[in-house]
Write a structure and sequence with these properties.
The chain has 215 residues and is α+β, with helices and mostly antiparallel strands. 24% of the residues lie in helices and 34% in strands. It is built from 5 helices and 12 strands. It has a 5-stranded mixed β-sheet with strand order 2-8-7-4-5, with no helix packed on it. Strands 1-3-6 form a 3-stranded antiparallel β-sheet, with no helix packed on it. A two-stranded antiparallel ribbon has the order 9-12. It starts with a helix and ends with a helix. The N terminus is likely disordered.
Length: 215
């Protein structure tokens, strides 16, 4: 509030009340728009797999004290609906009941006010996190059997989330415009993909062969 008063005092002497009102209105709109953005965590997306036999937690951000509704549907079942109110800090989370493994695709609709995010082709199965350094980062396209493996590859029930860091983690100073990327939600990029000859090329060879063996 003190910042707005300062802006008001300085602008009043220079340009008059009409411009001040417009300036303050624009400042308030900018602040409220950034604070109320509705979104879900980056780890969720169409084509994903969620862990079987355990409660499913989904989370994100919305305008404070607004209702968030999650609806899940399958072709052979009635839609289920779950709702929660976003906290004062804009965070929200909904816990869905555990489900058995199922390769029948689901659809989720997450809504808040007039905003709706729709996720499709969701499977219930096993989720494995594969992380490491150079051995884990070694891409499938560089494997000696890559041509044989990638030829006509299409595994509809094997899904890949290839999260790549957007900044180097080696001994280099970060630039001022890169600081925001150091936040956990901004540090990685990538999306869920069906395992095929295109999506698997740059995926970890170790992780891909592991998933293939599990099938």
């Amino acid at each position: 509030m003190s910042l707005l008063k300062t802006i008001h005092k300085k602008c009043k002497s220079a340009v008059g009340n009409a411009t001040i009102i417009c300036l303050l209105l624009l400042v308030c709109l900018a602040l409220s728009t950034g604070y109320a953005q509705f979104k879900i965590a980056k780890v969720f997306g169409s084509g994903m797999v969620v862990q079987r036999d355990r409660p499913i937690l989904i989370w994100g951000k919305a305008a404070p004290n607004t209702e968030v509704v999650v609806r899940t549907t399958r072709l052979s079942s009635v839609a289920a609906s779950y709702q929660i109110t976003a906290a004062a800090d804009s965070t929200w989370s909904v816990r869905l009941p555990a489900q058995k493994a199922n390769s029948q695709p689901q659809q989720w609709q997450i809504s808040s006010k007039q905003d709706t995010i729709t996720l499709t082709d969701i499977l219930i199965g096993d989720v494995w996190v594969c992380a490491g350094q150079s051995n884990m980062a070694f891409m499938l396209k560089n494997d000696q059997f890559a041509r044989q493996t990638l030829t006509d590859l299409h595994k509809a029930n094997l899904r890949l989330l290839n999260w790549q860091s957007v900044l180097t983690t080696y001994n280099f100073p970060y630039k001022s415009q890169e600081v925001n990327r150091l936040q956990p939600e901004n540090f990685y990029s990538g999306s869920w993909q069906i395992a095929d000859s295109l999506s698997a090329r740059n995926f970890s060879a170790v992780a891909f062969y592991f998933g293939q063996q599990l099938q």
